[in-house]
Amino acid sequence: MPPLDLHVALFGASGAGKTVLLAAFYRAQTQPSFQQEYAYKIQAVNKAQGNRLLGRFYRLEEGQFPEGSTRFDEIEFDFFPRDLAEPAVRIHWYDYPGRWWEEEPVDADEREAMREGLLRLGMSQVGILLADGAKYRREGTSYIRWLFEHFADECDRLRRASAAAGEEVSFPREWILALSKADLFPPEYSARDFEREVCRDADEQLAKLCSVLRAEHAFGHRFLLLSSVAAPPDAPVDPGTSLGVRTLAPAILVSTVEGAVREAQAARKEKSAKETFFQGLRDLVQFVDSVDDFLPKRYQIVSKILRFVSIKDFASARVDQLRKAREDAIRKGDTFKAVLTGMVAALRDDEGLRAYHQNQ
Ligand SMILES: Nc1nc2c(ncn2[C@@H]2O[C@H](COP(=O)(O)OP(=O)(O)O)[C@@H](O)[C@H]2O)c(=O)[nH]1
Ligand SMILES: [Mg+2]
User: How many angstroms is it from 20 CA to the middle of ligand 1?
Assistant: First the structure.
């Protein structure tokens, strides 16, 4: 069976930390110690791209941060279970240059790149908005408010410009708000603290952003702290220390399932307003054979995911139980179950609990 395709759109102004993040994401999950602990590993589908990311990381180890880039970048990673040969999950990353959000295309080539990039957006199950942790640390609430307003305005502008050109932009329905450079915050600062501050101080701006993205229930509920490297203001960079980089793929997986549940709930007219996510998930599992008929195309992989991970695992299983299920699956050669339960477990370990928080 081919791997499950997850498509992720990454947004962040230039300098927010996208390029460093992809290098750290790749490097961290290719380490033997990672494989030992998480029982899965990552490979770049395109080996040359993988080498480029590693090169970038090695330069970081020598204290050299990457040059800024304004290109749209697309990169694919496969996730393999330890000791097994087939990948279970393929993540397609779309790295949107901050500049697209700020300026008109400079020429016809860029206009075309932008058009194609925006088509990918319609395939993406999950969007990640990267807030610049250094700016947030310096400027506080006013930065977050600015970020939401600015992003909302620019999404609106892109949507109208595309509509005028006869194409409809469809934004992801599920979003994760990620705070980069989390190493600049105190060691006890967690995604839960970030969530509290955002909801307390920028609720109006969040509501506006949700309405522009037409994702009323999906933006502002998932928060992630990310630190690709530790780069304290007056000490050398430490590329060996990261936070949340290993939580990212599991958060994307779970968000995709949540998106499908929400789509399915919206499609069923008799759904009561109070129906919970887990009731929705249970229903979806019951109808797993017909899921592909009523879910939009970008969520159809969820019927496959639900064949391999039980509701119990999504909802309540403890990390030790998940790890046991994962190891059983590896022994039985069950590629999908191994990687999927491994990812769910990663959200519940110490790093996952600090770095990721979902408030509803
Ligand atoms: N403290 C800290 N600084 C970072 C981190 N990641 C990136 N930076 C800084 O932010 C700058 C911009 O990062 P980059 O990934 O190029 O941003 P992009 O424009 O969004 O791709 C880098 O040159 C670093 O100085 C991080 O995890 N921690
Ligand atoms: Mg960049």
Answer: 6
